[in-house]
Amino acid sequence: MGVITLATVVLVSFACQASATSSFYTDNYRGQSIPMGTMEHQQKKNVQQDLLELMGLYSKPKPRANRRHIQSAKNFMRDLYDSLKDMDDQGQAAEDTHIHISSRINASALGLDPGKVEGSDVIVSFVNYARKVPHLRHKRDRTFYFDFSEVSVTEQVMGAELRIYKEVTPGLRFRGQSFKIQLYAFKQRGNSRDKVLRLESSLEVKGDTKGWLLLDATKIASEWTLFPYRNMGLYLKVLDSKGKEYHPRDFGIVGRKGPADKQSFLVGYMAVSPQVLERRARSVRARRWGVPDGISYSDNPYTEYSRHRRSAAGSAWGSSYENLRSHKNCQKHNLYINFRDIGFDHKFLIAPDGYKAFYCAGDCSFPLGIHMNATNHAIVQTLVHLINPDDVPNPCCAPTKFGPITLLYYDDNTSVVLQRFRNMIVRACGCH
């Protein structure tokens, strides 16, 4: 079908049979799932590298921020991930890779703007690094710096928002009053030390408000994506109705020394073009299966030294597969991928630990029943095969419908990334 899936990548990596912890679990064609076996160290490295490239990463990230400062962002992203996982488990996502909110209730509980979420392929929460930037570090709790160096220019910013938490201030000082919270971007003007503030967004808030406040930062985030060198940080002002300015801390806004689960963070909603996603897949295909590298499709692209081990092992799984496959019609079978066993630990991949990829196998022989989901062309090909089996083969059993999976992981800046990946789960099989 011309589509590379994660199941395709990991299946070709299987080369040796063993009884230790396995990376892959599949059908034994008796209604049970069994481990396929373990991989050698080099095989795991190869599989890991291919999966990273499909994700748009070229090495496993090494998060560098203090985990305390990302607790609130991680909690938000985990809640979002869990709501999307519920949708995936119910099969609602089908082949669409975009991130959708299943209900207004979910959106309200997470404080989401459906207009920003709908149509995104990637959601990223950025950590505040203002304390490490010289011109920002002395303006404590008024300034923010979010590193956009990991964001590719191929990612279009659909929306961005700064999330800050406000406590109720003690006493009656601000109760009943209205205040304006303004978000500014630092901009360079002439001399390298000469900086000005440009207003990005404003929010009207009551003095006794408590909870997460969202300030729009879409315009400046789009600018940072295209021109990272223009990123000089953000500045926050709190003004009363007469224009008097207050320190954010005095207004109840939680600063860097506040609770870990109430630290400020920025969320970016990104869209990735289908062409970019396909280029990633083509890159892996060319490197692992490409003819220019002298590798034929009959070779194992991950290792040359394991082929004799597979044949010598005389695997019970292999023999049961060969014996029983011919008695089964085309259908979907279990295939579980264990991410932890191939080296995606919790320091990088937050969730999931693994996933059900499934695969298609079985015969497409005459007669093709309705349950075999055969195309009209497959039916015609089957009839011609019966007349001339030497010239025309039987149709093949292949996926007819795919679904995406969602991964939650850290990048090098310890930003928490939620990303959807297309064509990762086989939803249905049929004869083609």
UniProtKB/TrEMBL annotation:
The keyword Transferase does not apply. It is found in: Secreted. One of its GO terms (cellular component) is extracellular space. It holds the Pfam family TGF_beta. Keywords: Disulfide bond, Glycoprotein, Growth factor, Secreted, Signal. GO terms for molecular function: cytokine activity; growth factor activity. Its main location: secreted. Belongs to the TGF-beta family. This is Bone morphogenetic protein 7. It comes from Elysia marginata. The lineage of its organism: Eukaryota, Metazoa, Spiralia, Lophotrochozoa, Mollusca.
